[in-house]
Sequence to fold (359 residues):
Amino acid sequence: MNQEEKLPVIDCDVHNGFRSNHDLFPYLDDTWKSQALLRGGGLPLGGGLPYASPIGNKRKDANPPSGLPVGADPDYMIKQLIEPFNVEYAILCSDSMIAVSSFADADYAAAMCRAYNDYLIAEWLPKSPTFKGLLCIATQDPIQAAREIDRIAPHPDIVGVSIIGGSRMPYGQRFFHPIYEACQRNGMPLVIHPGAEGSGIFNPPTAVGYVSNYLEWHSCLPQTYMAHLVSFVCEGVFEKYPDFKVVLSEGGVTWLPPLLWRLDKNFKALRASTPWLKRLPSEYVRDHCFMTTQPIEEPDNPKHLKMMFEMFDAENMLLFSSDYPHWDFDDPTKILKQFPLETKRKILSENARALFKLP
Fold:
């Protein structure tokens, strides 16, 4: 085994699944349990996304021998992901649960998040010291969400807060600020993950409306991240909360440099629109924002990806993610081959170690 194959890995996007739609019932009180029964068990399962992937969204080899659903068997996850790839920590994010923010009933969504967070702490985190969790909040009611952050964040194996990319307004707006205040108060980064844009009460998944199929939807996801990122900067979130950090997960990376070039240029002429900003927009992004590698763009010429990485602070802003057990899983031993060893070390583990305060 060569030196590069021995590099430790911190996987920042691992999806733990549910054994059944009823997994959260023991963690719901009777009022919300009855509501969940009316909804067929209560789990969002994609939040009613109007697009279906023609190949599904899971690896075909990820079905556990136990017969449990894909991603629902922690022992098999350890065997298939943790052990073969030298994963020090797997940061668990339930892509089913974060879709609760697409529900019209804010109180039901908040109750489901409370139940999931208790379930995560009771039934997943004790299974392995490699497992760390992202607590889930619903964005419909930021005050309730902030209370849930305060409740769960002190747990030693909870390392961040997860929300969905879909929304009814850009995330920099003041409506959401109680969430960011709670994140800063508890030293928790906010991880934004896609999965239900265009469903439920969310806006359409693109700037011009609804697309026709999953290929279009999946390809256009960076639009959501661009809008949220510009909003975070221009609404002054990073001035108001100087210790607040944001992770843009599973939205690609190469769109960032041209967006920041455009934003910096326009800011120089239009800065009177945002008098609270004291620095260039790109400087706020560099100091407060991170992106995950998966799904990394794959140009025909690999040198072009390396050139794009040189156009922003990729060495310090990127976090490795495999997206296990989804179909577009990234093998940590195969990506970033053209980069120097120390750059790979930072991206594969050290940036995440510092951000999530991991030993």
User: Anything to note?
Assistant: The longest strand covers residues 158-164. The chain has 13 helices and eight strands.
